[in-house]
């Protein structure tokens, strides 16, 4: 896998993936940016949510669950010192559907956390305390 990041102006950068997708990154005014786009650390947080959500939805669809919506609420804590790395990340999944199996949702979240989500596992192996919870909403 390859990518590149190019400086645009101020503290704004554009990342381009080898697959041709682009994303803008910035930082807050506090750090010299304009706040016009997510910071790299916000991108990491959203990446763990995206990676794990893809796993959960994929597994539930394979289990023939009628998933209508899946949202993951992310919360985190960072070190007070430089580098201000993540020390804790919590993912709370809210899965909505028809006749969803609580056990299937729980299992999908656990499998993503323990086996499939590369971003979550990488962060956990790097010393971040990554935790997960879920709730099921039926329509």
Automatic annotation (TrEMBL):
SUPFAM superfamilies on file: OsmC-like
Pfam assignment, any one: OsmC
Highest taxon, organism lineage: Bacteria
NCBIfam families noted in UniProt: PRK10738.1
PANTHER family: PROTEIN YHFA
Name of the molecule in the record: OsmC family protein
The species this protein was found in: Parendozoicomonas callyspongiae
